Structure formats: structure tokens, C-alpha cells
Automatic annotation (TrEMBL):
CDD domains: HNHc
SMART domains: HNHc
InterPro entries, A to Z: HNH, HNH_nuc, NA-targeting_endonuclease
Pfam families given in the database record: HNH
Annotated keywords: Endonuclease, Hydrolase, Nuclease
Source species: Maricaulis salignorans
Protein name: 5-methylcytosine-specific restriction endonuclease McrA
GO MF terms, alphabetically ordered: endonuclease activity; nucleic acid binding; zinc ion binding
Family matches, as Gene3D superfamilies: 1.10.30.50
Ranges where the HNH nuclease domain occurs: 82-141
Length: 195
């Protein structure tokens, strides 16, 4: 991951909760600069940090926000949405059977990942947190319509419903390709940063 001193292309704005924690780590909670400016004017956010760049209209000019904080706290203790992407994040973008990554690189990827029912639907398996895992295509094809015991493919760990805090912790393992230096005081990553 690279730390940029110059504003990244498109001036993305880091969005923090009212407690100055990011709303999410993966994907990192950012807005386009236009959304950030709109929410400043609607008084939904407070500007924490700015880029050096300025945007203006015929009657107004302002520095582009690089970090904003919501004025009202958004509770993160809610149950996370059951989505394919959140299943992949829960499983660390790795196959639950063989441990292969989504695309073999150091960054999370999904090119080779699929969505697998541990107990197949034909055997009464439900589409829920406790029965769905990330699986690479070869493992998914090999397992077919069998359960892991029948296919002799043990799970690395049983699937379970994650909390938002668990997904956040998992997201910190996958930093984006770049961060702006104004964001660093508000983020924590489990990797070394390149300057």
C-alpha cells in the first residue's frame, strides 16, 4: 500500500463515523468529492481535513474535503447484510476448502471465487450465513452436489454469521492500493505502509 502526499485522482473523501472511526475498512468508506461537498452544505458532516486543491462556483470557493466525519453516529452493531461480497470478506477472500485466494495475489480478489452451499440445496441446505462459504471454482466443481463429508473435503472452519466488528477486523487485513496521508490518523492496518 502506498501513502500519497498529493491528492489521489478524483479527490476521494474518507468518511468517518461521529466517533472518528471509518464506517468500513473493506471497502474503505469513501465518497466522491461532490458527495462530500454536498453533505458539508447539508450540515450532515464536519470537515476534518482538506486537500490543497480548491473547487469553486461563480460565487463560492472551498478546499476539497479529504476527511469528513458524520455529525450523527451510525450504529455499527447491526447485523451485516448477507451478500456474496460479505461472505467472501468473512472468509478472507479464500476458499473455505483448500485455502486458495481469489486471484493468487496479495490483494483480495474474487475472480476465482464462487458461492458454495455447504449442505446442498437439493438436500435441504439454506442460503444463509451458516451454510454458505467462499469456494474456488475447482473445489466447487469437485464438491458438486455433495456435502463436505461425502466429498471428502473438510471445511477449514465452519461458516457462521459474523458481527459487523468481525467484518471490520477482517477488512483491516486488506488495505487499499493507496491512502492519502491526511487519512492515516483515522485508519489502522495490519500491514506496513510505503511512503
Amino acid at each position: 500500500m502506498q501513502v500519497l502526499a498529493k491528492a489521489p485522482q478524483g479527490w476521494p473523501c474518507l468518511v468517518l463515523n461521529a466517533d472518528f472511526q471509518p464506517l468500513s475498512y473493506w471497502p474503505l468508506s469513501t465518497w466522491p468529492w461532490q458527495e462530500a461537498v454536498k453533505n458539508v452544505f447539508l450540515e450532515r458532516v464536519a470537515i476534518v481535513s482538506n486537500y490543497e486543491d480548491v473547487v469553486h462556483s461563480p460565487t463560492f470557493e472551498m478546499h476539497v474535503p479529504s476527511v469528513v466525519a458524520l455529525r450523527d453516529y451510525v450504529a455499527l452493531d447491526r447485523t451485516p447484510a448477507f451478500t456474496r461480497y460479505n461472505v467472501w470478506l468473512r472468509d478472507g477472500f479464500k476458499c473455505a476448502y483448500c485455502g486458495a485466494g481469489g486471484h493468487g495475489g496479495s490483494e483480495p480478489g474474487t475472480e476465482r471465487l464462487t458461492f458454495d452451499h455447504v449442505i446442498p440445496r437439493r438436500a435441504g441446505g439454506k442460503t444463509c450465513w451458516e451454510n454458505i462459504v467462499a469456494a474456488c471454482s475447482p473445489c466447487n466443481l469437485k464438491k458438486g452436489g455433495r456435502n463436505p463429508r461425502e466429498a471428502r473435503m473438510p471445511l477449514r472452519r465452519p461458516p457462521q454469521r459474523p458481527s459487523m466488528y468481525e467484518l471490520q477486523a477482517q477488512g483491516r487485513r486488506f488495505p487499499p492500493k493507496f491512502l492519502h496521508e491526511s487519512w492515516l490518523d483515522y485508519l489502522y492496518w495490519d500491514v506496513e505502509l510505503e511512503r
